[in-house]
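User: I'm curious whether this sequence folds into something compact or stays loose and floppy. Could you predict its structure so I can see for myself?
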Amino acid sequence: MKAAVYSTYGPPEVISIKDVEKPTIKEQDRVLIRVHSASVNTLDYLYRKGYLPTRMDNGLTKPKSPILGIDVAGTIEAVGENVHKFKVGDNVFGSCFGSHSEYVAPRENFLSHMPKNITFEEAAAIPCAAQTALQALRDVAQVKQGQRVLIYGASGGVGHFAVQLANYFGAEVTAVCSTSNLDWVKKLGAQYVIDYTKKDFTDNGNKYDVILDAVGKRTFFSCLHSLTENGLYITEHLFFPKYHPFQLMIGSLIGSKKAKIHFTKPNARDLDFLRDLVEEEKLRPVIEKCYPWEQIVKAHEHIETGRTKGKIVLRVK
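Assistant: Here's the prediction. I'll summarize afterward.
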């Protein structure tokens, strides 16, 4: 089969499409998927560039896992003996490493049946970003009806899902994004919008129960005075050079305002929940651009700008 492979860390040009060995079902709780589409996430370019925290996981001098990709949508071609949820021919979406390839063989507990009312490309846009937003708001922040939630980076991959989910949970949503996306995030469900190119939300005197930094551009200390007495700041971006994780530890030991790091935990239960929301038209993935996977270098250049409206997707089949 063919896969988008990188054998050294560096710029987007280190990725090329090559012939590699097709995966097989070696453990009986796995399925073989013919990949139709896969998205490109921030984590993909961080691994490709070789930021130090990612090298600790993927090899200090060269990548141990040479195929990127963590989101997948496709059709099942084979199932292991212990797979009970899926059968051959099912269209599925979910999380697995190495999805920038023609075939993957993930465990069934990282997959869900694809929503019936969307395309493979739209389904591939959901898993990582939407689960990140869901778990941050529902599990970490435990957002309740009427709470004031601010989403920083509201027009990005995680952010545009977070706006919709916070609205679904009944929060009063303030979305921070650039000028061109203000009207769009309002349509997604934000009650208030702030143009970060013209105003700093920390200067407006408003207080928020939850601040979700979806792009890793703000620190806990910079948001401190914009939190309510028992307010919570959440981030999941530990890989950016400007980020100081010790702020979270120190800050959370002082006073009633807290900061938490969120690490996404892919699972079928959350994918099922998101699928139901999509089918009920209460959540929708937005794709800024879908690239043929032969243009994966351009897709990486795009995601690395940090200026995406929704998701970037690769069309593999």
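Summary: The CA atoms of residues 212 and 234 lie 5 Å apart. The chain has a mean pLDDT of 93.
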